[in-house]
Specification:
This protein is an all-alpha fold. The protein contains two helices and no strands.
Length: 104
């Protein structure tokens, strides 16, 4: 294992975790509040029981949260991991310092 590469991956992981926490919290709060209010209002107006509304909005919230998490993960991978791998590949193609790993 290459310590330099491991540190870069750790940095990317920390950025992803913090970004997912903050952005996921804000986006989840907004999307969850809006979707819960809309779905809850519609289902409540249709006479659906409160426990059923809670279950359905919980499932919808989980699905929306998973989608938000995926796009945050994709963004961090594209901005943090892929450039490092491309740079490492370029270095190995140019006969780098022998410090790069063959497989990532």
């Amino acid at each position: 294992m290459n310590t330099n590469t491991d540190i870069r991956y750790l940095k990317s992981f920390i950025i992803y975790t913090l970004f997912a926490l903050v952005a996921g919290l804000v986006a989840g709060l907004v999307v969850g509040a809006v979707s819960g209010a809309v779905l809850g209002g519609i289902m409540g107006g249709l006479g659906v029981s409160l426990p059923t509304i809670q279950i359905i909005t919980g499932i919808i919230g989980f699905i929306l949260g998973s989608v938000i998490s995926f796009f945050i993960f994709r963004f961090v991978i594209q901005t943090q991991i892929i450039p490092q791998i491309a740079n490492q590949y370029k270095t190995s193609e140019q006969g780098g310092d022998g410090d790069s790993e063959e497989a990532v």
